[in-house]
Amino acid sequence: MLQLPSLETLNMGAALPAISIAAWACILLLIDLWIPKDRKILTVYLAAGNLVFAFIANLLVFNQSGDSFMGMYVADQFSGVMNLIIIGTALLSIVLSFDYLKRVGIERGEYYVLVLFVTAGAMFMAAANDLILIFVALELLSIPLYVLSAFRAPDIRSEEAGMKYFLLGAFASAFLVFGGAMVYGATGTTNLNEIAASAGMIIASNSSTSLFLLLGAALLLVGLGFKVAAVPFHEWTPDVYEGAPTPVTAFMSVAAKLGGFGSLLRILVVGMSAVTMTAGEPAVWQNVVAILAGLTMIVGNIVALSQANIKRMLAYSSIANAGYILMAVAAAGSPGLANEATRGALVYMLAYMFTNMGAFAVVIAVERANGGADLEHFVGLGKARPMLAIMMVVFMMSLTGIPLTGGFIGKALVFATTLNAGLVWLAIIGVLTSVVSAYYYVRVIVNMFLRDAEASTEEATPGYSTGVQWVAAVALGGTVLLGVLPTLITVLTDRVSLVASITP
Amino acid sequence: MSPLQEFAPIAVLLIIAVLVAIIISIISRLFGPYKPTSRKVSPYESGMKPIGSASRRYSIRFYLVAVLFILFDIEVVFFLPWAVVFRDMGLYALAAMGVFTLVLTIGLIYEWKVGALEWE
Amino acid sequence: MLEITPNTIAFLVFALLSVGGALGVVVSTNLIHGALFLIVSLFGGAGLFVLLAAPFMAAVQILVYIGAIAILIIFAVMLTRSMTSLSEIFNRQWWISAIVAVVMLGLLLVGAILPVWGPSGTNAMLPVSDAVGTTVDLGIALVDGNQFVLPFEVASLLLTAAMIGAIVIARDNE
Q1: pLDDT average, residue stretch C59-74
Q2: Domains of chain B by start residue, with CATH
């Protein structure tokens, strides 16, 4: 007979941060109906308040690791750190959005509800320990993002972005589901712990079942590779990033990556680390992921060189950064290195979050002041708005990976773990492409300081809004603090360990 | 019991429906008077002339209604397996489905309030 | 030799509906007709699900695919102009579609012939073959806290998010 679970056994408290955001998104949807059109700032406060609540709740349950919903949702230090980064992203982008939405006349409360849905989806993805939950959470992350991309609807570029993202995203989801079905067919379970328990045996048996397991893993990799914009599944990225409203671009460049890498790390490290040809060897997916990482870094950085639009350039930069994180994922395939690599990826993602949000804040400010986000619009920024320009310099330096910025710490950790894993060629590609990337990042700096605007006649448009100012300042603080005092975050990440608990 | 036997009533229903339709039209054709004129054979559509291109464009509102219909249709699909077991699982299953329905009801209220169900 | 039982007859009928409908979708020059053929094909699929002892899948096929998605496709066709009478079946990308179709067929054949699943599977330790899921199992799995209650609730969030999205995008901006 069926055992009814009690509330204690479900242990919902551990999943409280994600659940509170999801529940509040629904409530906020209703509240927003009664908020008059000219007072949408209330919706922003309500959404931000919920995010702050979830942030604090996440800190409270940080050390209380445990399964929620019987191993469906794993609240460990990994999801704890991921949740902090995801909530931070959502907070920063909500603050960024309000002013932008008002300016382009698309001020609607649904925007913030959808952002909350994406946030909840990303958090579920990072904590999901089951292929079914991973798929549902991925859709919860993706569908609102399609809508947000097209949020500036009569604008043709925004519509195009939403359409492209939707079509290709639906395709990627299909790959993910198909892969999940293959893995289920091979192992008879969707739970990652149980997959881990039977995967090694299946590979060792060398029967046709192992073929299905590998095919399934490959398809899962394709589906998630699309979400994190890894080459060769990156084709949508530049168009979508350019067409979507800028705060949405900022949000999705980080949030979708966080969710995607959260699930990818869990699937590969928890579920598939036993998939080796001989025990003690690196997992078979290591080489595949490493090749993807190499391709992603090369293509992303080299195509970024020729971009004249900053949003497009940051899109390719985002592809390239996916490559660096993938490098850590590949390193996690070596036995004994999984935790070190995971920690490296976490620090990298945190640094990328601060840096990228900051860079997009500056882009929004420049769009507002100069009416566009082409490289030309940045000319003479050093004179017109020195504070803004200096912030941008720091963000560009962090993206390049220059010491004393968060980007450097992230890259150092990722390169170190890659070398430890013996993937020397991959680390060399990483270093070389970082050098290449310096060219286009520095070009922004050059344009801001060393070139003068031909006609700097236009009187300074009203300064950038307080929201954008705050976000840029917070991002700057985060980037520098992480670069100077990396122990602040490594204290948290050092306790992260991703291992399958074999007894479910 | 093989699945075919389980579904036999549905198959019987299908066959009867098809047969009745055919038989009725045959009977009326056999026993009714049949003197066609162009007026008589043209379809009746409330006095409007029903002939014209069928490929004129329809309002986008149809599409929104269809999309919303799909979403609630999927909700109904989730009800199916739940309905089979909820008697055994009692209050707990009711609560689980209650949360599910509540979330979708919130969506429905939003949809209603925002005017997506109005045709204007 | 093929034994003629009610099952085989039913299978042949449904398979014929399924494949014939699919063929009709591909060759009809009127998109509306194509959409209607799709319904025939989906109905055949529903019958096959019944024969495979998966009545819930059959219900989903009828309710969602025929009842909603096919209707949506017909609406989508009606929203477009000048797509109802195509003069030719082949376009420039026909060979890509052909290659994809052949590869998919090959994959499916391999999957169906390789003895992985089912009683003749090489992997006897697999717990798959003995568990024939019924609608009851599915219902329990959906709401049971030990199984899939969380994805079930998240699915409702997903549906709501999709609803908001559809309204935000399709409604006129006032």
Answers
A1: 90
A2: 3-113 (1.20.58.1610)
